[in-house]
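User: quick one - fold this with uridine-5'-diphosphate bound?
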Amino acid sequence: MSSPILYIVVPCYNEEEALPISARRLLELTDDMVEKALISPKSRIVLVDDGSKDRTWEVISGLHEENERFDGIKLAHNAGHMNALWAGMTLSAPRCDCLVSIDADLQDDVNAIYGFLKEYAAGADVVYGVRSSRKTDTPFKRGTAQGFYKLMHRLGVEMVYNAADYRLLSRRALEALLSFGEVNMFLRGMVPMLGFKTAKVEYERGVRVAGESKYPLKKMVAFAIEGITSTTNKPIRYVTALGLLCVILGLAMAVYVLVSLFSGHTVAGWPSIMMSIWMLGGLQLVALGMIGEYVGKIYMETKRRPKFILEEHLTSDEG
Ligand code: UDP
Ligand code: MG
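Assistant: Sure. C-alpha cells for the protein plus uridine-5'-diphosphate:
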C-alpha cells in the first residue's frame, strides 16, 4: 500500500497567539511523517478560521503563502467549533485518504498521530484519541465533564469516555459521517454511530500552548444541551414516566382522601380538589409525553440520517 494522504483539520477561533506555535509543530510533524514515508507528500494541514475577530486569518494566509502544505478556509461568521470542523471535513473529504481533527491550542499531544496512523494501517476506520488523565484540567472542568459522560450514558448515548474531538477517520468513515443530514449535530455522539472497525490511542492532555480557552461556561452548557437534545429523545420518555407516577400517586391519594372523607376528618370540597389535582396533573403529563413522542419522531425524521452505512459490498457485477 502506498502511503496515505493525511489531512489534519484544525478549527481556529481567535487563535492568533496559539496558531503560529501550533502550525509550526504540526508542520514539523507532517514533514517528519512524509520523510518516514508514513504519509504521502500530498498531505495537508487545513486551518479553518471560524469567523475570528483577531488576526487569525492573516496568520493563516501567511502560512499558506509560505508553505504549500497549509490550506486555509475562512468562514464568514463564527459558526462554532463543530461547524468549523464540519466545514474542514467537507472540503477535505474528496482529497484525502484519512483525516485527523485536532484543536488549535495543541492540548492534545500531536505525537499520538503516529499511533493513529499505525492503527489506520492495521485496518481501523475510526481511531479515537483518549486522554489518559485529566491532570491539567481544573477540578471544575473535570467534574462537569465526567458528570456529562455519565448523564449521556444514562440517556443511552454511546460515547467514548474521555475522547474529545481528536480522532482519525478513514475516507469511507468520513464520507459516512458527512452523509448525516442533520443541522444540529454532536460529533462525539455521531461518530460511534458509524460502526466500522475502531481503535483507541491514549495520550496525555496538556495545557494550551498560548491564548485562552474559547469555551467559557456559557458555551460549555450550550454544548452539553446540544449534545443531549441533538442525539436522543429519551428525556421525553421521562415526562411520560413522571406522568404515570403521578397517576399512581393519585390513586394512593384517592384511597387516603376517601378514608379521610368517611371517617369525617375533612372539610367540604377538599376531597374533590385533592383528587382532581393529582389525577388531572398526572393525565396531563402522560398526554404531554405522548405528544412529545410524536414530536420526537418528527425530529428524528427531519435529521435525515442514513438508514445504513455500507462497509463492504462483495459482487461480481462490474458497474
Ligand atoms: N473553536 C472554534 N469556534 C468556536 C470556539 C472554539 O473553532 O466558536 C476552536 C478553538 O479555536 C480550538 C477548539 O475549537 O481550536 C477548542 O477550543 P478550546 O481549546 O478553547 O476549548 P477547551 O480546550 O478549553 O475546551
Ligand atoms: Mg483547548
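One thing worth noting: The chain has ten helices and seven strands.
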